Amino acid sequence: xxxxxxxxxxxxxxxxxxxxxxxxxxxxYMDFAxxxxxxxxxPPKRKIRKTIMSSSPEKAAAEKKPEEQTSxxxx
Length: 75
Description:
Layout: H1 3-14, H2 17-38, H3 57-70
């Protein structure tokens, strides 16, 4: 086959509605597949607590121990 015979056939194939539809579908599928492959989930943001503590838990526990000892009745 010479180029003069191939060009009209190639033009008919490339302008067919089914070929164009399949080409668009394949393009969209490949685009979605690359999106899924490259997708990275954003790291979760830490919530900032706006509570004010009077003292740290260790200090609060240390302060309670002497109070508990003094509140016991002496024998």
